[in-house]
Specification:
The structure is a homodimer of 288-residue chains. Chain A has two domains: 157 residues, NAD(P)-binding Rossmann-like Domain (Rossmann fold); 119 residues, N-(1-d-carboxylethyl)-l-norvaline Dehydrogenase, domain 2 (Orthogonal Bundle). In chain A, the strands form two sheets. In chain A, strands 3-2-1-4-5-6 form a six-stranded parallel sheet, with helices on both faces. The first copy, chain A, has a three-stranded mixed sheet with strand order 7-8-9. Chain A has 288 residues and is of the alpha/beta class. Chain A contains twelve helices and nine strands. The longest helix of chain A is centred in the middle third of the chain and has 29 residues. Helices cover 53% and strands 14% of the residues of chain A. In chain A, helix 4 links the parallel strand 5 and strand 6. At the A-B interface, strand 7, strand 8, strand 9, helix 7 and helix 8 of A face strand 7, strand 8, strand 9, helix 7 and helix 8 of B.
Chain lengths: 288, 288
Amino acid sequence: MKPISRVGFIGLGAMGGPMAGHLQAKGLLAVVGNRTPEKAVALAETLGVAAAKAPSDFSGCDAVVLCVSMDADVLQCCRDLAGVLAPGALVIDHSTVARETALTAAALLAEAGIAFLDAPVSGGVEGARNGKLSVMVGGDAEVLASAQELLSAYALRVTLMGPTGAGQATKAVNQVLVAGIAQAVCEGLAFGEALGLKPESLVPTLAAGAAGNWFLDKRGATMMADQFTPGFKSALLLKDLRIVQAMADALGRHYSVVEQSLVDYAKLVDAGYGEEDTSALIRLKRAN
Amino acid sequence: MKPISRVGFIGLGAMGGPMAGHLQAKGLLAVVGNRTPEKAVALAETLGVAAAKAPSDFSGCDAVVLCVSMDADVLQCCRDLAGVLAPGALVIDHSTVARETALTAAALLAEAGIAFLDAPVSGGVEGARNGKLSVMVGGDAEVLASAQELLSAYALRVTLMGPTGAGQATKAVNQVLVAGIAQAVCEGLAFGEALGLKPESLVPTLAAGAAGNWFLDKRGATMMADQFTPGFKSALLLKDLRIVQAMADALGRHYSVVEQSLVDYAKLVDAGYGEEDTSALIRLKRAN
């Protein structure tokens, strides 16, 4: 693998925006793109890099990083990039998508001699902003080695989980924990409210014991104050849970946390709260 | 309140044993008691304090600390102590019991001029051993002030949550989180196993992101290695969940995490795993 010095970044949302910023701070970022081009133009200006108007604007990149939401977008980006990147280049996908999408993306890029890593992340917008994400990688060890310096721009931990698709499999597991912990914390705090306990005492007391967790630390106080600015949008967790459910179905397994969370987040999205943080689940718990 | 210099301790289990040790290290412990008297005799010898053979052996104590399992045991201890402690003494109950049990205990002790704090704890056997428990207190602020030095022997954090019973109400909320996080982590790790992911990569990767939590840190690796030494016994979590369910019923609420966890832990206990750690829930998740 050749050393990576010119990186393109596609998908400048709540996660991608700050991640691109960290790459720029390391002197690695060359060009940024986004489905809504205005966002790319604005960030490109701020960071002093180029804004992509067409796939060909990524042609000089050694690596292109994707951070988008939907499986179809990942595949479209990979098809576009397969036509413009030089053989030996690398595409890293930080999106959360199906394992099959990772396998398809890797295969179509391989035809053009381009390497691929599925590398979904966890750590929330806080992790993206402070450069402390956990990156779960599927792919080849040598390819990952060539990308370590790039990833270190925004990763606390990078773990090679197995061959292509293993990153997405790991992220699916991660989302079971994320959904289940949201269930636990939102239900517990709604119960605490119903019992008349004070949020300002309750949250730190719970956090100091065996119930301590990231979500309580980061979202406990805000959800009890009815603040649901994402964070991580409920509609995106619902999308991820559908990926998880398909994987569970393929294994012939029934997982109660996944099934309950699918019902609840679908209800939340249907009620118009899909753009709110996943902690908005407390709305349902309060009404039960 | 008079200063506390002679403390009695009743209930020398996985939590109480190390907590009594911390009191001894502070020079506060005078006498220990236990339902199985041999345990008290053995620990008394180790710590160089007296072993109680009868309630009257606690008569010279300024404070007696309870760390037992069942509501009936808390009430029996309080009835016994009401007959032997001097007016102005204090009883602190670290057991997890119903809020009504705390109110009854406080009332019967008050008749003898004895103060009471309901003060359940969280932080697991690790927290008891390293003296870093979160203590959730119900009772009078002045009474708590008199007990702060005693509690600091094994507490990371002491929080006055409200009047008598508020400590137990808070612990009930804590157990909703504890049960729900066990659901999330056990289901996620069973799913990870089914997907063929390696435990030694999976656990630290999940722990480094938004799915991070106490239970994953402390029990993730052991449960994937089929080690279920408590920790916190499944039968005791089931007992606690029944307290929670009664409180939810009284509020007219339905809580899905609580209801699913009651079903699952009853199944686990019925199958003979009640003495195992709560992480043994992964047995059910693997079989689903």
